[in-house]
Amino acid sequence: MTPAPAAATHCPYCALQCAMTLTPSAAVPVRPLAAPSVTAPSVTALSVTALSVTALSVTAPSVVSSGEPRVTVSGRDFPTNRGGLCKKGWTSTVLLDSPDRIAEPMRRGADGTFSPVSWVDALDDIAERLRRGRAEHGADSVGVFGGGGLTNEKAYQLGKFARIALGTSRIDYNGRFCMSSAAAAGNRAFGVDRGLPFPLAALGSAETILVLGSNVAETMPPFIAHLEKARANGGLVVVDPRRTATVRLTENGGGTHLQPTPGSDLVLLLGLTHIVIAEKLVDERFLRERTVGFDALARSVGAWWPQRVQSVTGVPVHQLREVARRLASGRGSYILTGRGVEQHVDGTDTATAAINLALVLGLPGTPHSGYGTLTGQGNGQGGREHGQKADQLPGYRKIVDPAARAHVAAVWGVDPDDLPGAGLPAVELLNSFGQPGGVRSLLVHGSNVVVSAPNVNRVRAGLAALDLLVVCDFFFSETASLADYVLPVTQWAEEEGTMTSLEGRVIRRRKALDAPSGVRNELWIMRELARRLESPGVFSESPAEVFDELARASEGGLADYSGIDYALLDSGAPVYWPYPAGSNGTPRLFQAAFAHPDGLARIVPVTPRPAPEPLNTPGSLTLITGRLLEHYQSGAQTRRVPELNDAKPHARAELHPTTAASLGVADGDLVELGNSRGSVRAIALVTATIRPDTVFLPFHFAGSECANLLTQDATDPISGMPEFKTTAVTVRAVREEVTA
Amino acid sequence: MSVTPRIVLVGYGPVGARFVEDLLPAVRLGAVALTVVGAEDEEAYNRVLVAEFAVGRTDRSAMEVTDTAAAVDAGVRFVRGAHVTGIDRDARTVTLDDESVLGYDRLVLATGARANVPTLDGVDAVARDLRALLRLDHSEQGRDQRLPDGVTVLRDLADARTVRAAVEGRRRIVVLGAGVLGLEIALAAAEEGAEVCVVHHGGHPMARNLDRGGGTMLARSVVRAGVALVAHSRAEAVTYRTDDEGERHFDALVCADGKIIAGDLLVLSCGVSARAELATLAGLPTSAGVLVDDGLRSWDDPHVFAIGDCAHVAERPADYLAGARVAGGPSGLIGPGWRQAEWLAASLSAEFAASAPPPPLAAPRPALVMLKAEAVDVVSVGDVELEPWDAEPSTVDADGDRVPGRQVSQWVDPEHGRYLKMVTRGGVLEGMVCVGLPRTAAELTLLFERGSELPADRSVLLRNDGPDYAPATDSDTFAPDATVCWCNGVTVAHIHESVDAGDTTVACVGKSTRAGTGCGGCKGRIGELIERFMETEAAELPV
């Protein structure tokens, strides 16, 4: 077998989608994967403990027996990453031959252990049980949970599969945990949501960049090259309760760190807006010609003068003034938000407040300034455009819009009346498991909800109550290990497709090598299930064909891909949506008008609300969560890369020295963080880089280290985003070493 | 009740406006009929910004706090530019200066406060006790006195415009009183180029808020900011000059010790008093304001309420005698006033529109005082007279629980203009003065508002303003665990190892450690490190 030529593709992880080349190593034969002998817990899913789950994820050598990976990675020049990769990208190919890889479909037996099963038997049984579930409990008893890492083709096809093959409205995805608040705010203000409505490289010409709640230096390191000019001009402003790696970029004259107490971001933004208005730094002409709603905003922020903001946020007045003036200095200013400010029950309003600040300064829709949100997951942008969302059809269309239904139904070859209506956002969907009228059968694609969803104990109980759980994955992730069926699927280097990066650029994922023989692409799985379910419509397993259909389905929608095909993408042209047929795409949105019918941006006044649960009560700390350089999302992949896992094998709880001292905790001690929902054990990392009232946990770990055992499932009323970032916890030192 | 309950609000400042806003849902439902009587023709504005408006730093449009049009749309009736001159509690009506009469079922007084005019020879004194009020003409009730030309208080927009003209004309401004507002206007006017002198009778400015140490430090900062301070001076008289057209203007302030301080404008900044005379005239109990219980209801009339700067919330003493002085008084701050407005609106909505009643209004905490000035940073709260060596024994409260005595920690650095006093009880901040330490002050304001315990090591707080808060990393860029390449998590030690292993170029080091293979921003540093480690190696070679 001759190895394929080098594949020009992109990194499998985050939304920066660093360009990389995968070169197959000619000498190395494809190693047949042995079926891992995995024993899943025989008890109920709810009682799966940390240790037993961990036992499934054996860490092992990352390379085939010859010691050489089958493909080698090299950085590829591209405007976003300029040839660079981070540690995760460099080690990404290790997972292709991981000994943990699932090589054939696995079925859980009556004794709770998994054993291999043929594709035919697996799909026949799954289809039969889905059909039966639908007949007995209605179509909405079948749920689908997708992911922001799926290609555009898979995400599109999954939405279509749910609506016409399963006939269910109950589809949502893990992007609800990431981008939904910023998306809702962007749609409300601008009429469209493209994370960065400008090419990423445009940041490179800005002298002031305000980053709120994002730690790009760890989450997408090659990004920081675009902050160079702002740093050189002292204009990088980072808002974070921790002095993160990104904050360190402000040192030595690079800029300013604002360190507000968790949960006060909205007030901080109202305060900055107040100063901009009070000090007459507003762009009056812009407000007059391109926006509506300023007067109400001016009144609403009148109540947030700087001294009052200081007493709520802990950010000194002079810093607030400096930042407001700096942003208004007119030498290219960008405001960027991340999950830190968005993952709250008022996340939509907080993102709106950031947009309002940008609008009063006249930044969006101008050539050298703007507002953007930093999409996290690999296809977090494309994944939120083409129908995985409960309320959405392809092209960022609303599922309740009759015209949208008619258009999409015509492309799918079904009657618009046969399309279900809006479903439930992720947390509600998860909470409906096993409830009367709730979901009883679930298909999971590209998500590891028992690590990544809030209030994990509740999610575990919900999954245990299901009649059928089918998980598509590469590994026995913590969620897969609770499944009735685990269907092994292709990894990024084994498939063709497209992704839409954080800047709204559609890029190609290309195949570098064949998948192991027992592994299938999800497009194939959907085709096979659709056939067995006697679904109307066409379910192609060819990514190019699915993409062409996606392009037609998106035509006329907000995220219009109708002018894009693989030939265009393969030409190397920079392709930014909206890209209607006959156009050249849209690298920079809003230059002439915003996407509302009248072309004007909406300024929507927002006001702070009390936290869903009281914070800063005596003896409590506020838990915030985030990422580490070495790991990605639930860690299902990166914890299986030895180099990454060896560097960061465990969750460490960051505590301020003064807090640690009062708790009697020393660096390296085992501590327990607890609240009414659960408890987490972690090693203390004592560091002055965190606020004394705050404790930080990375969210990549499972079992008793899973940060989401503590987080709450209260959600934003507009976006459905859970409150991940302010959780009241108590912390105590664990004196005697207790092992479960 | 067969007819819609009528609520009359007297006063449409920021507190009144908040009350209206929060009552709108009930108004829209038709559950209550709301009439607002406002003395100023202006829209409600944010008084917090009056000093900034007075020096031209902000515009009227930035001071709007409410949407009157929305309230009108909702069905609120406004009577603007009108004064309530009397309350008939038996008939439950109020009379306006145009003799019109409004009936009410609930009367809410949000008349605010007026600036005090001290007793000065040359300025008419006005009494507002019941006897004096009864002598006033009906149409004069509720009005403020007119001050001579060149003399002003600083309370409303008209006053602010007077000051603004003087600032813009770079005139000499004399401020009488060194409270927060006096200092704010003095500092702001000086920054904008006016010549400013502050006259006060204590030993240091902000005497009501600061201890001697903090006040002394503040005085230095104020002088450094270009404002003349005349301490220990009791003002006694105002003299006038007459211009060519025969108009009399302020000329100078005369002090008890004979000092004469000349200027173009005299700004009287001597505190405020509640506008409580409507209640006084109506026979309702008043002291430092309209006396109301913790439900904001008048002690003597269940149909009358007061909120904001005119409200004196206090428990009625068992032995209360009409006219007796009652401890406490309005806070004079907007925050507590807003909370009262929100609470009363919620409470009346619950009564008439069947919405959920609000939880009891929390007792106001001592209010933080933050001087709004660019060059001077002062925050204070609570009682700060206690000194570090004043031992305060613990006591036992009514429940038999031990209440620890207060403790004081202090930092004094006159050379650098920094002063901090923290008065704590059981580790929780009860009072503080913080001068010249802006980050520390920000953290302490937050901790005070929450009632959180301070770090046991108080010096941790001071370090917020220390050089290690945002460390210049130059000192430790060669520390073995210092990160060089963020993209790949490569430290100085890793690069040292790589150089020791024979890598002598950035590319080689990149190949073996991945340093510099992400964003590439650290390649320069890697080069420096290679050079440094190769030199070290060379030096270590035997000669």
Describe this protein with a few key phrases:
heterodimer, A: 740 residues, alpha/beta, Rossmann fold, Dimethylsulfoxide Reductase, domain 2, Barwin-like endoglucanases, 3 domains, 24 helices, globular, B: 543 residues, FAD/NAD(P)-binding domain, Enolase-like, domain 1, 5-stranded parallel sheet, 29 strands, 27% helix, MoPterin_dinucl-bd_dom (chain A), Prok_molybdopt-oxidoreductase (chain A), oxidoreductase (chain A), iron-sulfur (chain A), Mopterin_OxRdtase (chain A)
Total tally of structural domains of chain A: 3
What are the segments of chain A in which pLDDT stays under 50 over at least 5 consecutive residues?
27-66
**How many helices of chain B in DSSP terms?**
14
So what's the oligomer here? heterodimer
Widest sheet: strand ordering of chain B: 3-2-1-7-19
Radius of gyration of CA atoms of chain A, rounded to a whole number: 25 Å
Tell me the CATH architecture of the largest domain in chain B. 3-Layer(bba) Sandwich
Give the largest interface: A-B, 62 and 55 residues
Question: How much is the radius of gyration of chain B in Å?
Answer: 30 Å
How large a portion of the residues of chain A is in β-strands, by DSSP E? Answer: 15-25%
CATH homology group of the largest domain in chain B: FAD/NAD(P)-binding domain
Give the CATH class of the largest domain in chain A.
Alpha Beta
Assign the structural class of chain A, choosing from mainly alpha, mainly beta, alpha/beta, alpha+beta, or little secondary structure.
alpha/beta
Give the helix tally of chain A: 24
The amount of helix of chain B comes to 25-40%
Share of residues in helices of chain A: 25-40%
